[in-house]
Amino acid sequence: MSQLGQLRDAGKAILITTHDIFRAKQIADHVGIMKQGRLVAIRKRNDFKHADLEEIYLREMHVPQARLSQDG
Prior knowledge:
Layout: H1 3-9, H2 21-27, E1 30-35, E2 38-44, H3 50-61
């Protein structure tokens, strides 16, 4: 078990900032998404599935869906 997991299991509060939202879901009890310094979404880890987390992140960051090049 990772050191962070051991601290979590011991009831310690841990604040982590990362761009890896899927790793955050593995470690955290709650996952928040920030945009321009503001918390725009927060969920308990068990409240959403892996795909839901990606959808929330992309929606809140207003990331356009990938488009295939017309040039080939």
